[in-house]
């Protein structure tokens, strides 16, 4: 069964440092956390891949000796909590604590109190005991923000699937289109301050499925992709609470495709976020809706490599005498078995068994068998002929 990775938006600051994304692994083996007097300055994660290989990723700056939190081989992290605050110019992570599937809890990294008060706004990442398999965030001189990946089973796709948390307002009705092969066309409406309507034409097994959300305006704007070769690579959006509007809503959308095309809708006002997963294509949307589009999230799936082009068969001229009747067995995926019969003057008979897909195809008899009989030459699975001498 394929995995779906639920990617939760990071908590903390969205201005300082630079963005990083460790992606997903089979699990986390060890965590290192460094701090100073007011904040978390450093994190290092030891991840385990499915083949047992250990991969290390580190972020931030070491100011004091980092503390270590190891996990057992059959143990995994199920929750991360902490706090974030603005100790200087930008918001940063001020404390962290990790909980595991065995009921263990790490020490509290970072100060719990600053100047007699809790060290900032508290947060918790937890999903009913699901395993945390990766982290992402922002860092520079310290850890500015931290987000997580949870692992879920998915029966809707044969490939790994990433579901990126919807960003924007908290109000409105939740909707979820699920995942498809790709997006073929978008129709978008806007009013004087927000995105009011979205209509998506998805492609699934060669068929078109349509979904729409929000309230349709007079003349929707169109954005058409040259699918299946072209796909949406990223969505950049802003959200804000405009004057005289009750809800926080999506105010602008900018789509970028694999062909380098971009298309912008709305008004770039408010906080910005980006829906993007490296090496992946956008295959579906989800979010919140009411009189407009309150929030937007997306599904991403890996970009499949182009199929390896088949090498055309090259027919070489036959070598030998001019007598007899011409024959041609045609072209197959390979040769499995060869029968060669001898006569008094040389080779008197040949017959070939070919491979086509998962089937074996028996060729015709060529020549005549003699009393000397025929010898058989069988190739192993995966073995093929590279040369013929005679």
From TrEMBL:
<dbReference type="InterPro" id="IPR036404">
    <property type="entry name" value="Jacalin-like_lectin_dom_sf"/>
</dbReference>
<keyword id="KW-0430">Lectin</keyword>
<dbReference type="InterPro" id="IPR033734">
    <property type="entry name" value="Jacalin-like_lectin_dom_plant"/>
</dbReference>
<protein>
    <recommendedName>
        <fullName>Jacalin-type lectin domain-containing protein</fullName>
    </recommendedName>
</protein>
<feature type="domain" description="Jacalin-type lectin">
    <location>
        <begin position="161"/>
        <end position="302"/>
    </location>
</feature>
<feature type="domain" description="Jacalin-type lectin">
    <location>
        <begin position="313"/>
        <end position="390"/>
    </location>
</feature>
<comment type="similarity">
    <text>Belongs to the jacalin lectin family.</text>
</comment>
<dbReference type="GO" id="GO:0030246">
    <property type="term" value="F:carbohydrate binding"/>
</dbReference>
<feature type="domain" description="Jacalin-type lectin">
    <location>
        <begin position="5"/>
        <end position="152"/>
    </location>
</feature>
<dbReference type="Pfam" id="PF01419">
    <property type="entry name" value="Jacalin"/>
</dbReference>
<dbReference type="InterPro" id="IPR001229">
    <property type="entry name" value="Jacalin-like_lectin_dom"/>
</dbReference>
């Amino acid at each position: 069964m394929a995995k779906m990775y639920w990617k939760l938006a990071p908590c903390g600051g969205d201005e300082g440092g630079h963005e990083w994304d460790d992606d997903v692994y089979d699990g986390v083996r060890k965590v290192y956390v460094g701090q100073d007097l007011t904040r978390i300055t450093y994190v290092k994660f030891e991840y385990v891949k499915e083949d047992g290989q250990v991969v290390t990723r580190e972020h931030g700056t070491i100011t004091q000796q980092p503390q270590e939190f190891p996990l057992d081989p059959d143990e995994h992290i199920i929750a991360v909590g902490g706090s974030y605050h603005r100790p200087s110019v930008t918001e940063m992570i001020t404390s962290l604590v990790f909980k595991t599937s065995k009921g263990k809890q790490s020490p509290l990294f970072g100060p719990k109190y600053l100047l007699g008060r809790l060290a900032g706004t508290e947060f918790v990442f937890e999903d009913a005991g699901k395993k945390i398999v990766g982290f992402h965030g922002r860092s520079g001189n310290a850890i500015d923000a931290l987000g997580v990946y949870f692992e879920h089973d998915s029966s809707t796709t044969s490939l790994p699937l990433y579901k990126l948390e919807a960003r924007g307002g908290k109000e409105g009705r939740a909707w979820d289109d699920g995942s498809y092969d790709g997006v073929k066309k978008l129709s978008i409406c806007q009013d004087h301050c927000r995105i009011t309507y979205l209509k998506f034409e998805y492609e699934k097994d060669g068929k078109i499925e349509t979904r729409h959300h929000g309230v349709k305006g007079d003349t929707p704007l169109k954005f058409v992709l040259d699918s299946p070769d072209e796909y949406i690579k990223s969505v950049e959006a802003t959200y804000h609470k405009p004057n005289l509007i009750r809800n926080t809503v999506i105010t602008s959308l900018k789509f970028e495709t694999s062909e380098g095309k971009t298309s912008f809708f709305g008004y770039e006002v408010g906080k910005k976020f980006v829906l993007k997963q490296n090496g992946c294509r956008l295959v579906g949307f989800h979010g919140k809706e009411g009189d407009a589009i309150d929030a937007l999230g997306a599904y991403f799936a890996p970009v499949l490599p182009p199929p390896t082009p088949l090498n055309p068969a090259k027919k070489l001229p036959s070598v030998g005498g001019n007598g007899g009747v011409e024959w041609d067995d045609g072209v197959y995926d390979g040769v499995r078995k060869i029968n060669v019969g001898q006569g008094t003057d040389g080779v008197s008979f040949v017959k070939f068994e070919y491979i086509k897909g998962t089937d074996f195809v028996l060729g015709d008899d060529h020549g005549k068998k003699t009393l000397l009989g025929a010898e058989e030459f069988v190739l192993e699975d995966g073995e093929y002929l590279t040369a013929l001498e005679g």
